[in-house]
């Protein structure tokens, strides 16, 4: 990614990512841990238990509901159908409050554009194998300072 200010790069990644699963993870506003910490704990567990070489790439849109809860709409690659239930259950175990599958088809790029342009959601792309994430098309080092708000 050469121009980190171009959100189209995120949308290209969403369109061309070879995703096999789209899952929505609910994070309650009543939790004391951060949504970022909860997600990174979950994605690290996924990598350790199911990842190809423990690396898991993802794209997600973070939607904040009127009640303060967050919905993380997550795209993942190479997720065997038989493991998806365990992944959803692990989300609840690390502090989430429900997970459900979303339809994954060729309209996914449009959905992420809607989240970004209409709902003003953050788009995060990354991997549990590196220390940087791309948020809204901007590269931000994972030094504990970037937020998902």
Describe the structure.
With 149 residues, the protein is α+β, with helices and mostly antiparallel strands. The protein has a single domain (7-139), classed as 2-Layer Sandwich (Alpha-Beta Plaits). Helix content is 32%, strand content 27%. The chain has a seven-stranded antiparallel beta sheet with strand order 4-1-3-2-5-6-7. It starts with 6 loop residues before the first helix and ends in an 8-residue tail after the last strand. Mean pLDDT is 81; it is low at 142-146.
Summarize the structure.
The protein is of the alpha+beta class. Helix 1 runs antiparallel to helix 4 (108-118). The protein has 4 helices and 7 strands, in the order αβαββαβαβββ.
Q: Could you tell me the number of beta strands?
A: 7
- What CATH calls the topology is Alpha-Beta Plaits
Class derived from helix and strand content: alpha+beta
End-to-end gap: 23 Å
Q: What global shape is seen?
A: globular
Gyration radius, to the nearest Å?
Answer: 14 Å
Tell me the fraction of residues in β-strands, as a range. 25-35%
Number of helices: 4
Topology as a string of helices (H) and strands (E): HEHEEHEHEEE
The averaged pLDDT comes out at 81
How many domains would you count in the coordinates? 1
Oligomer: single chain
Q: Widest sheet: strand order?
A: 4-1-3-2-5-6-7
The biggest sheet amounts to: 7 strands, antiparallel
What is the CATH architecture descriptor?
2-Layer Sandwich
CATH class wording: Alpha Beta
Low-confidence stretches: 142-146
| Share in helix | 25-40%
């Amino acid at each position: 990614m050469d121009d980190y200010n171009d959100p189209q790069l995120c949308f290209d990644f969403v369109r061309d990512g070879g995703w096999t699963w789209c899952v929505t993870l609910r994070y309650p506003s009543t939790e004391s841990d951060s949504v970022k910490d909860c997600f990174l704990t979950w994605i690290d567990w996924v990598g350790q238990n199911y990842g190809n070489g423990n690396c898991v790439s993802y794209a997600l849109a973070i939607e904040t509901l009127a009640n303060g809860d967050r919905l993380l709409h997550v795209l993942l690659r190479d997720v065997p159908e038989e493991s998806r239930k365990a992944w959803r259950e692990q989300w609840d175990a690390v502090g989430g409050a429900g997970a459900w599958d979303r339809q994954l088809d060729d309209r996914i790029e449009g959905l992420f554009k809607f989240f970004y342009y209409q709902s003003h959601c953050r788009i995060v792309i990354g991997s549990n194998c590196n220390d940087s994430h791309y948020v809204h098309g901007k590269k931000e080092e994972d030094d504990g300072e970037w937020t998902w708000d």
